[in-house]
TrEMBL record:
<dbReference type="Pfam" id="PF00724">
    <property type="entry name" value="Oxidored_FMN"/>
</dbReference>
<dbReference type="InterPro" id="IPR001155">
    <property type="entry name" value="OxRdtase_FMN_N"/>
</dbReference>
<dbReference type="GO" id="GO:0016491">
    <property type="term" value="F:oxidoreductase activity"/>
</dbReference>
<keyword id="KW-0285">Flavoprotein</keyword>
<dbReference type="GO" id="GO:0010181">
    <property type="term" value="F:FMN binding"/>
</dbReference>
<dbReference type="InterPro" id="IPR013785">
    <property type="entry name" value="Aldolase_TIM"/>
</dbReference>
<protein>
    <submittedName>
        <fullName>2,4-dienoyl-CoA reductase</fullName>
    </submittedName>
</protein>
<keyword id="KW-0560">Oxidoreductase</keyword>
<dbReference type="InterPro" id="IPR051799">
    <property type="entry name" value="NADH_flavin_oxidoreductase"/>
</dbReference>
<feature type="domain" description="NADH:flavin oxidoreductase/NADH oxidase N-terminal">
    <location>
        <begin position="1"/>
        <end position="302"/>
    </location>
</feature>
């Protein structure tokens, strides 16, 4: 990476109904890459067509999507950044009204859902790996495995949501098996030069920070991944209860020996000052989410003016139009992100 700015994965609901990348997708990543980010992650892209959670979600589950993905990879490279596709499956959060089929780790009689069979879990693992191969074929430098926000990999990690009795459930080792098999498979299939990121969140969905710390320690020890992306909503968030209470969530992960694996953090980083604070606390790089929507060239602005701070929210639609956001992206920000658009 040429600097410490990474674009956080940002769903923008601007892909075609079949998951193919549109001109909007290509234009967005091109502007972001030109804006100075060292590495640009795509929005969450489905590794199975049935794993959809969002309208207009990008797909990487079919070879027919390769052309559009190739255009995105080219645009990022031409803009001077490294690239990664975020690999996603919504698990129990897949949305039937969008063609999704909820695929939970455990039975949910209340919602009328039956747990995935062991064979279905193995197929899902293989589809994550196949999607990574597709990303490589399309010319991306790497992939980022979505293990956050209760989506399938995070769901399997959760002792609340994963009550399976096969080798993918019960012990923490079993609950983390899907994650590590996906990472191993990608590394084996795509080779040592292909960059692999892992995104984990530690809040909600019954996730336990002590367990996630142990899983991260193991991922750092195995060194199959290149970076961990800690998906916080506020990078200054403190642990509220349990043995780690009072520490920042970031410090819990930054204090682990990490060898050559890099550590990044997301959450309300909207100025160089805040970026420097998390780097002083032990992060190697920062992920920029909402500030990138406000300014596609947020890093460039900081390089020009180190005191720069992203605009305050809520923002008016005219600003987002001037920034070149597509109509579906603006509509998504208006309807789904309370307090973002005035
Ligand atoms: C509009 C929007 C879309 C997002 N889409 C994704 C996504 O596709 N995958 C993901 O892992 N996180 C997603 N996130 C979370 C961001 O990547 C990031 O972690 C979060 O917004 C905190 O960073 P920020 O305070 O800089 O926005 C999304 C956030 C926003 C605001």
């Amino acid at each position: 990476m040429k600097n410490r700015f990474m674009l956080a994965p940002l769903t923008n609901q601007q892909s075609a109904p079949d998951g193919a990348a549109t001109d909007y997708d290509v234009d967005w990543v091109r502007r972001i890459a030109l804006g100075g980010y060292a590495l640009v992650q795509t929005c969450a892209a489905t590794v199975q067509g049935t794993g959809r959670a969002f309208k207009g979600q990008l797909g990487i589950h079919s070879d027919e999507q390769l052309d559009g993905l190739r255009r995105m990879a080219d645009a990022i490279r031409e803009g001077g950044a490294l690239s990664a596709v975020q690999l996603h499956h919504a698990g129990h959060r897949a949305r039937p009204e969008l063609g999704g089929v909820p695929a939970p780790a455990s039975d949910d009689p209340h919602a009328g859902l039956t747990a995935m069979t062991t064979e279905q879990v193995e197929r899902l693992r293989d589809d994550f790996i196949r999607a990574a191969q597709r990303a490589q074929l399309a010319g991306f430098d790497g992939v980022a495995v979505h293990g956050a926000f209760g989506f399938v990999i995070s769901e399997f990690l959760s002792p609340l949501l994963n009550r399976r009795r096969d080798r993918y459930g019960s012990s923490i080792e079993n609950r983390a098996r899907l994650l590590f098999e996906v990472i191993d498979g990608i590394r084996r299939t795509c080779g040592p030069q292909f960059q692999i990121g892992l995104r984990l969140s530690v809040e909600r969905y019954g996730l336990r920070i002590e367990e996630l710390r142990d899983i991260t320690a193991e991922a750092f020890r195995q060194a199959q991944i290149d970076y961990l992306d800690l998906a916080l909503w506020n990078s200054a968030q403190l642990v509220m209860d349990g043995p780690l209470a009072g520490r920042t969530m970031l410090s819990v992960f930054a204090d682990l020996p990490r060898g050559n694996v890099r550590l990044g953090v997301a959450g309300k980083i909207r100025s160089a000052q805040r970026a420097n604070e998390v780097i002083e606390e032990g992060a190697d790089f920062v992920l920029i989410g909402r500030a990138a929507i406000l300014n596609a060239d947020f890093p460039q602005r900081i390089f020009t003016c180190p005191e720069y701070h992203a605009p305050e929210l809520p923002i008016d639609v005219a600003h987002l139009q001037r920034e070149g956001l597509s109509p579906p992206f603006i509509n998504y920000m208006r309807t789904s992100w309370d307090g973002f658009v005035a």
